[in-house]
Amino acid sequence: MTKPLSWFIFLLLQCMVYSGVAQEVHLIPQIGVNLGTYNFDKTLNNTSQQRLAPGLTAGVGFNIAFSSSRDFILQPEINYSMRNSITDFISTGQTTDPATTIRQKTQLHYIDIPLLARFDFGVSTRYYINVGPSISYAFAGRESYESSTIANFDNISRKADFNEKFNRIDWGVWLGGGVEIPVNDSFLLLDGRYGIGMRDLYKNMSIPGAGSEETAIGNDGRSRLFHITVGYALPL
To answer: What residues are paired with 55 via a beta bridge?
Structure first.
């Protein structure tokens, strides 16, 4: 078991222990959108162009407050996350030359389990910031490659290969904030976050070319997500 996964399980168990002394617990169904890219720091900064691609997210959170003032809250969640990306690879390294562009589209389906610490302020309508680690598991996905500018390029659409190409497990950090609006005896939440993946997306990365040619790139591509959701709290 990797160290990040071990630490995350330890923190989650601690959260379950602390929930036994909580003053208030709410269940929060939530739904929203991701806007995702991949950060190619190591190998592809000069040979790729990223485009934001929207995807769906939905899940539930457990809002655990330890005082009636609700100043500090622990919020473990389990969410489905569709992470889409569009990357234009410039095979010659000339970002101004559109004649050699290959467009890759990926759609990966994840289960995300973040564990957030939330710090609240305000009286009736409340505002908060949150931060915490997350672990993610990719259970399915597809990728495609297309080019209208390269002769003899065969467009490709295939299932994501988690044995040889993609890593299933990702871990990272979420940070963000939102607003909590009272509704009757409960509240509505509008939440915005930025997620920073810390594990490479790829085990091995290669870009197909004309015919059967492929160009090896290396393992790279770390997830970057803007995450916007609406949730409604149900008291337990």
So the answer is: 34
Q: Give SS3 for 3.
A: helix
Question: Helix, strand, or coil here: 98?
Answer: helix
pLDDT, tens digit (0-9, with 9 covering 90-100), for 112-135: 999 999 999 888 899 999 999 999
Q: What one-letter code names the amino acid at 115?
A: L
Bigger pLDDT: 130 vs 222: 130
Beta strands in the chain (DSSP E): 24-39, 48-51, 53-65, 72-90, 101-122, 126-146, 156-159, 169-183, 186-197, 206-208, 214-216, 222-232, 234-235
Q: Give 43's contacts (C-beta < 8 A, 6+ positions apart).
A: 205, 217, 218, 220
3-state secondary structure 175-195: EEEEEEEEECCEEEEEEEEEE
Question: Hey, what are 32's tokens?
Answer: 């929203």
Contact yes or no for 219/205 (Cβ under 8 A): yes
> For the segment 126-184, what is each residue's pLDDT rounded down to a tens digit?
999 999 999 999 999 999 988 877 777 788 899 999 998 899 999 999 999 999 999 98
Residue ranges and CATH numbers for the domains of the chain are: 24-235 (2.40.160.20)
Q: How confident is the model at residue 93 (pLDDT cuts 50, 70, 90)?
A: very low
